[in-house]
Amino acid sequence: GKNWHELGRLMNKSDVIEDYIASAYHLIQLGYTHPNYLAGYLAAIFVSVLASACYSRVWHRRSWATWHIAIHTSLPFIILPILAAAIGLSGSRGGALALAAGAAVVIGARFGRHGLLGLLLLTAMVLLIPNPIRERALAEHQQNPVTYARWHMWQGAVQEMVEHPLGVGAGLYQ
Fold first, then answer.
1. Which residues contact 45 (CB under 8 A, 6 or more apart)?
2. Which of 14-45 are b and which e, b meaning 16 or more Cβ less than 10 Å from the residue's Cβ?
3. Helix 67-90 crosses helix 35-54 at what angle (to 10 degrees)?
4. Cα–chain-centroid distance for residue 173?
């Protein structure tokens, strides 16, 4: 009802996100969903919040006198790290890729080359600093080196298509 709605507004919004993440992990433990699905939804929410923060009209106002403007400008900086951490904790490489691609589109459209350079530096830091996604990818590759065989097949197929753009005969790209 109205009381529940009021408890999830404004500065309490981070509590709502944390409750969502906790309930999602509970559903994973019960077997109702999969971490990759969760990470996909979280990446979509992350990109939506990022786009809202980047394109908000609040950034164009000069008056910081009202609490409403202060909350609007600070709330994304509370929510975005929580969402990014949840995607990292899910261990989903696809979710991390969706987050990076969506963030690149939003930041590239809003801030141009300078924004993309900053995002590239942030991505390099994430890849160098130990985190669950990086550790999972390294452990999976060490445990089963054939994991990335699909990547090698795609590289071979693309190379064949580049070398023979009109094809090499019926069904020979297989």
1. 83
2. eeebeebbeebbeeeeeeeeebebbbbbbbeb
3. 150
4. 33
Burial class for 132, CB neighbours closer than 10 Å (0-12, 13-18, 19+): middle
- More confident: 107 or 23: 107
Percent of the chain with pLDDT over 90: 7
Dihedral pair phi/psi, residue 64, rounded to 5°: -105, 20
Quote the tokens at residue 139. Answer: 């452990």
Q: For 46-90, write each residue's pLDDT tens digit.
A: 999 888 888 876 555 555 555 556 566 677 888 888 888 888 878
DSSP 8-state secondary structure symbol assigned to residue 10: G
Cα 94–chain centre separation: 9
